[in-house]
Specification:
Length: about 260
C-alpha cells in the first residue's frame, strides 16, 4: 500500500507511478486511518510534499500514529518519498525521529524534484514554464530509480537537501508551523464564478460553499490546492497572490511509459 498527501497533484502523480511500478495501490492518506494501513511485502510507502524544509505536520502526526506491528522481529518497513520544488533541507530527519520514537522500521527516504507550488511569501512563485517542463520530464526516470531501490530493499537517505539545510529546517520550519498559515487571509475575489472547484479540491474539506461562494474554515494545512485549482484565479491569500502564477500537475501515471 502507498499513501499520499497532495495539494496540487505532484505527490499523487509520484505515488501513482510508484504504485504502477511496484504493482501496489495508492490511496489518499486520509482515506485510510493509521490503524487500518496494510503492509505488503514491500512494506508501506508514504509520499508527501516538503513544506518549509520539513514534513507537513499532519503527515508527521499520521506517521506517528501508525501502530507498530505486533511481532516486531518480522516488522515490515515504511519508506518515504518527498516531492519538493527544489530542496528538502533536513525534512528526512523528522521522519527518522518519528520512526525512532514510535518503533516503526524505516527502509529509506528519497526525494523527487517537481514543479514548485508555493506562492504565499514575497519572492516565491511557481516555476517559469521551461523549468516546470524540465522538472516534469525528468521526474519519471527518478521515480523509476526509486521504485527499483524499494524493490531491492535499499536503505538510507537519498534527497536533494540544498544549502543551509540545518538552519532552514531547525529555524524556519518552526516559524512556518506557527505563522505560515493564517486561514482568515483566504478570500474569493469578484471574478469568482461560483463553480465550487476550490472546495472540491481541498483535501481536508476545509472549504464550504455558502451562498454559492467559498468559505474557508480554520483547519487549513497550507496545501494551496484551492488557490491553484481556481479556473479564474479568484482565490486570494491576502494581497500576496494577485500577481502570482498557478500550477496543477496534469500528468497521469497511466500516460507514462
Ligand atoms: C506550504 C508549502 C511549503 C513548501 N516548502 C517547500 C520547501 O521547503 N522546499 C521545496 O523545495 N519546496 C517547497 N514547497 C513546494 C512543494 O514541496 C512542491 O511543489 C511539491 O511537489 C508539491 O506537492 P503536491 O503537488 O503534491 O502538493 C512548498 C509548498 C508549500 C505549499
Ligand atoms: S474555484 Fe474560483 S471561481 Fe470557483 S468557486 Fe472557487 S473561487 Fe470561485
Ligand atoms: S483551504 Fe487550506 S487545506 Fe484546503 S485547499 Fe486551501 S490551502 Fe489546502
Amino acid at each position: 500500500m502507498i499513501l499520499y498527501f497532495s495539494g496540487t497533484g505532484n505527490s499523487r502523480y509520484v505515488a501513482e507511478l510508484l504504485a504502477q511500478q511496484l504493482k501496489e495501490k495508492a490511496f489518499p492518506i486520509f482515506d485510510i486511518s493509521p490503524a487500518n494501513v496494510e503492509w505488503s511485502d514491500m512494506g508501506l510507502g508514504i509520499v508527501c510534499p516538503v513544506y518549509s524544509w520539513g514534513i507537513p505536520p499532519l503527515v508527521l502526526n499520521y506517521i506517528s500514529s501508525i501502530p507498530v506491528q505486533a511481532n516486531s522481529t518480522h516488522q515490515r518497513p515504511i519508506w518515504v518519498v518527498l516531492t519538493c520544488g527544489d530542496e528538502t533541507g533536513m525534512a528526512p530527519e523528522m521522519i527518522v525521529d518519528a520512526c525512532a520514537k514510535t518503533g516503526l522500521k524505516l527502509q529509506g527516504i528519497w526525494s523527487v524534484i517537481m514543479p514548485n507550488n508555493y506562492v504565499l511569501l514575497p519572492g516565491f512563485d511557481v516555476d517559469p514554464t521551461d523549468v516546470e517542463q524540465q522538472k516534469l520530464s525528468q521526474a519519471p526516470t527518478r521515480i523509476r530509480t526509486i521504485a527499483q531501490a524499494v524493490i531491492k530493499g535499499e536503505e538510507g537517505i537519498d534527497v536533494t537537501r540544498g544549502s543551509w539545510a540545518w538552519i532552514k529546517t531547525k529555524l524556519v520550519y518552526p516559524l512556518f508551523k506557527r505563522w505560515g498559515m493564517i486561514p482568515r487571509k483566504w478570500k474569493w475575489t469578484k471574478e469568482c464564478l461560483q463553480c465550487g472547484k476550490c472546495a472540491k479540491a481541498c483535501p481536508i474539506g476545509n472549504i464550504e460553499m455558502r451562498g454559492n461562494h467559498p468559505r474557508w474554515h480554520d483547519k487549513c494545512v497550507s496545501c494551496l490546492a484551492c488557490y491553484h485549482s481556481c479556473p479564474v484565479h479568484a482565490v486570494s491569500y491576502g494581497n500576496m497572490t494577485s500577481s502570482k502564477g498557478q500550477y496543477e500537475c496534469r500528468l497521469k501515471a497511466v500516460n507514462v511509459k
